Structure formats: structure tokens, C-alpha cells
Amino acid sequence: MSKERDILKSLLLKEELEVLNQLKSKLLSEEQFTDEVAKVLSSAIKRSQKTDPQLEHALEKPIKKGVLRAFSESKQSIIDALLPIMGQLIRKTVTNSIKQFVSDINRAIEQDFSIKSLKWRWQAKKAGITYPEMLFQKTIRYQVTDIFLINKDNGLLIEHAGSDDLLKDNNAISAMLTAIQSFIEDSFDSEDAHLQSVEIKNQNFIIATGPKVYLAAVVKGNPTERLKQRFQEIIENIHAEYSEMLLQEDTYQNNLELNDFLRRNLVTKSLSDKQKEVNTLPWILMLIALVTGIAYWSYTRNQSLKNIWQKSSTIDGLYVQKIERKDGGFMLYGLLDPLADTSKLSDDAVTFVTKPYASLDEAIVQKRINQALSHYQMVQSRFNNGLLTLTGEINHEDSQLLLTRLYSINGVNHIDDGALVKTNPPTDQPEEDLSPFFDQINNAFIRIPDIKNLALIEAQLGFIIKNLQLLEEKGIKMQLTLIGTSDCAGLLSDDYSLKRANTVKELIGASLKENGFINTKVKKCTVTNQTNNKSLLGVKFNLKGL
Amino acid sequence: MSVAKKICLIGRFAVGKTSLVKQFIEKQFGEKYKTTVGVSISTKNLTVENKDISLVIWDIAGFEQDGHYAHYMRGVHGLIWVLDGTEPESFKILETINNSLPEIKQVPSVCFINKCDLVDEWVIKESEINSLKEFNYAVYKTSAKTGENVEAGFTKLASLLLSSL
Questions:
Q1: How far is B51 from chain A (nearest CA, A)?
Q2: pLDDT tens digit string along B63-120?
Q3: Do A254 and B58 touch (CB under 8 A)?
Q4: Chain A residues touching residue B41 (CB < 8 angstroms)
Q5: Which CATH number is A362-423 given?
Q6: Yes or no: is domain B3-163 CATH 3.40.50.300?
Q7: What's the ipTM?
Q8: Domain coordinates of chain A in residue numbers?
Q9: Any idea which architecture A140-269 has in CATH?
Q10: Residue B16: what are its φ and ψ, rounded to 5°?
Q11: A27, A263, A297, A528: which could form a disulfide with A161 (CB 3.0–4.6 Å)?
Q12: How far is the CA of A470 from the CAs of A81, A159, A466, in angstroms?
């Protein structure tokens, strides 16, 4: 029956059975099945990824496992494969670091010639550290965010300053740091082996250890060696100032004074905060001192100039036009009477740049009067407001000469000689031939190439003055005309000629008892010459007896 | 105001110190054993008898090395001795430590005989448990796995610490 059925099946389902057998062989044969699955695997994964989110989760573990195995079994292949990528990544990281470093260096160099650098140099000198160290401190950024003060023995937190959010469990942090300290002491078998810094993620712990407690500061950024030293100083200060309360556990985390002390040492050191850090007080004080110094210097400078002006104004016969400072002294410009007394300015390093003039100051006029009266010992004088009062006794013969001379003094407007006793009236005497004296004077010509050179003029006037004094002693009434001459080489030649005649008159008059008989005039130029001739510059004399 | 106190768990290797701490703090138990290297620090704030206390728990690695624990025990306020009911050797170390650090006898302490969830496997005798009272310890049969007596033991120690203030 069964045989017959098989025959029937083969007759009826021959083709279907062949297909079925082929499928069966494919499924049962691993190799063939693998080939079939391989044909559709990629498209099946793609489709499944779109429709079934569980696929990724399903593949995650085997892929991860596979990758790890591949890493462990084929390290060299993985390294070879990753090298191009890792190499670039490392290069990029290193390049960025170098860029930052170069940027820091550039910034430091830029600061080198600025006012800020000068300030830093001054601060470095004041702090006793080198300029590069100060520069490093000023340009490196860091922030002290938390400070823990911890019992060295049991690791309990004594005080904490900083952000409570940053490190959630301060007690645990304190204990862990202490445990690390203990581990180091145990490892090195020495209680002097202290932990100095710990880096956890991007938090740097700087640790400063004291005899009873230690301090752990959380620093972000790049802490400097100076900062570490500073914390060591802080822990020493804490032991010095708060020694008694450090081991009083009932005050732990409830000591406001200690907390405040720690809080003051939370530092933010960044470039953007530099302005805030600057203590302007010393600079303001320096500025005030500078301004005060300048003001004082200016005041004393003006005061000394004012002092010279005041002294100058009290000197009779001195007319000041201006005073200038030069080479630590003063240059005084103006007019100066030869009889003026400038001894008041002798201590003030004053150089006189003056022109001579005849002053009408009463003191100077009085000096001229005294000069005129120097030959008359018995005559006294009093000069006031242009009035000259004479008293005493004088030879009658001399009285006229004296009066004439006194009247010739500029500033003397009136002479009161009512109280002046005249003695020995003049007597007639036989005339003497005095014509040689007259001739000698009339033939004379005084050369005056430079009107300021008085010495040269006086030297030439010697014999003339001598003759005139002789004639004066003999009581000869005379009239002397001084005639100024010139080379007519300029429009002002006549003016200069008159000056020459007046100068000679002044010099002669000063040597005689009286000079009222001396007149001056000019040999006027009728034409103007184009060339100079100094030999024509001088004074001629015309002396007549009366 | 909360006071902070340092307490140390001491006991032989694998008696369950870290698991007890984990149970106490996180109410969790890990089946997988991970040995503690050096010391592990945890903190827990408690309110006992209306007083706040912050326990800084130093879970010190198993006491197989001579004296290595001494540094970690400095300044300790309270101790938890942890013994293993299934391990008789864990009882011996108690005497060893007491001999090497006699000063800790003055420190308020409690004793946990751990692994009471495996009480069928316990090999220690009741007389040995009673002998612990010589040290004036409050003794708790604890299970880090089930949490039995864990909180009670820690709270007892906290109470002892507060009463000593």
C-alpha cells in the first residue's frame, strides 16, 4: 500500500518533490545555507535597521566583543590601521598646545615694553623675585576654587571655603586625601613623605602640610610654584594664629573666623581680571607725590625768580626789562647806571646784560652830588625831591664853579645855597699866557672807533683833562665845545656823533670841579658815504677863554 | 549642627566590610566580590536621638598585612569590628589587632558577626560569640546581603559616639 502510494506521489508530484528536495538539501547543508543567507544578509540588515530598532541593540554586544577581541588578537593590525588617524589627531592636539604656548609667549613679549611690564618689574624688585617669575605669575591663568583645611590625623574636615556644588561631599574628599596621605606615609615608611599635589580629572589639588593640619586647595588651570609657596605660607600662618582651635573638633565646620580666613585666599587669576587685581592706591599716591613734587619744584623755581625780581626792584640805578634762567643762574637784561650798587644780587648767580644809562633815582643823584662835593670837605648837602640844599663853608671863588657843576647833574632841579657861607672873595691877579694850553686842546682829535671802549677814550683824554684842570685851578673862565665827528656812512651818523661828544663830556666833566662850560655839538653830515672809515669817528675840541 | 566622626571598619580579608558599607549607604548588595585596595571612604549622615552626625566611614582593606592599617586608624573616633560567622580565622585577628594597637581599646566600638544569612554554614560556637563581650562590644549578627542589623549596628555606634561628646 505504501509502495503504491509512493509510486502515485512520484507520478503526481514529481516536479514539486524535486524542488522540495533541493530546498531541503540547501537548508540541511550548512555550506549551502550559508551561501544563501550571505546573498541576502546585507539587504536584510539594511531593511531590518529601518524597521526594527532592536537590531542595533542586538548587534551591540557581539560587535563590541568582536572589536575587543580583534584589538587583543591583532594589535599590530589595529595599530597600523589607526596610525594615520591617530597620527593626525595627535599632531592636531600638539599643534593646538604649541599655538597656545606661542600665544602665551607672544603675549609675554608684547607686555615686555609696556607700562605694565615696567610696573611688573617694579613689583618683582619689591617682592625680591626675578622679572620672568613675575611675568609668569601675571600671565598664567588659574583659579583657586576650593580650600579644605583638614585634620592631619583623622582626616576630618575642619573648614571648607569655596563652592559647595563643585565637590559634593567635602567630608569624603577630606578623608580620601588623608587616606592617600596615609598610604604614602605607609608606602614610604616615613611620616615626612607628604603628598604635595593630586590631579583628579581637571581638578588640581595643591596640598600644603603643617604639623597638625594640612590644607588642600582645588586649583583650575595652571598653578604656579609661587602659588604653592603661598599655600605653604598660609598653612604656617594658620598654625601660628589658630593653633588652639585646630584640634577642637566640636568647632569643626563652624568656625567663622577660620572660614573667613580661608575664603580670603580663594583667588581667581585670569587675564580678564587683571584690572580688578591692580591695587591703584600706590599709583595714586605716586601720582600725588609726583604732582606735589612738580608743583613744589615749580613753586620754588618761580619763587627764586620772583625773589630776583624783588631784589632788583630795590636797587637804585637798575632798570630791569626781563630776567631769564640760564645754566642754573639768571640773565638780567635792562639798563644799569655805573653808580648802581648791585651787591644785593651777588649771591644769586646773576649775569648782567645791561646798557649804561644815567639814572634819576635819588640815591644815584645823591652819589653824583657826593662825587662833586668830594673836593669840598666843608660843604654838606641834603637832596630831596629835586631840591639840593647846601650848608657849610666854601671859598667864594669855588662856589660858582661848584654851583655850575651841581646844576649840570641830571636830577638836580634847584639848589638852595642860602646857608652856604662863602669866604675869601676873589682878588685881581695879573694875567698869565695860557694860550699853549688852549692850543694843545684845540688841536686835539680823540678817536672813538668803539663808544663802549671807555678805557681807550680815557687814555686819549689824559692831557686834555690835565690842561683843563690847570686852567680851572687858575680860575680861567672858559667855554669848551666838543664836536662829534663821523664817517657819514649811515643815516644815524649824526646821532652817533652826538653820543661820542656827550660821552667825552661826561668823562671830562667827571674829572673837573665843574663842567657847566662844556657844550657838545655835531659836525653834521651833508652826504651819506657808502664805505666806513673808523678813523673819522671821534671828537674835536674848541676851547675859548671868556 | 552636625558633627563629623571618623569610623573604621576592620576585619579579616573577605569578611564583608565593603558589602556592609554598601548595604548601609546604598541599601544594595553585590554578589561579586571585589577586594578593597588600601582604603575606601564613604560618608553617611544620620540623625540619632535628635542629634545629627556625619559618619566618615573608612573601609580598610583586609588585615592580612602587618601593621599596614595603623596609618589609617589615626584619630579614629569609632570602630566596627567585622567577623565572619563562617570563618573562624576572622575571630583571631581581633586579638591580634588589639594587641598591636592597644590604644584602640578606648575607642567606642561595635562588633558585626557577618553573613548571618548563611547561619547554617556558621562554624563558630556561641561561646566564642560570648567571649566578644569581654571587649565590651555591642555584638550584632549582620547580613550585608539581606541588610539584617546593618543599620542598627551603625546607628548603635553613632549613638555611642554622640554619647561620648
A1: 14
A2: 765 567 788 888 999 999 999 999 888 888 788 888 888 888 889 999 999 999 998 8
A3: no
A4: 172, 175-176, 179
A5: 3.30.1340
A6: yes
A7: 0.85
A8: 140-269, 286-356, 362-423, 435-545
A9: 2-Layer Sandwich (3.30)
A10: 110, 25
A11: A263
A12: 135, 117, 6
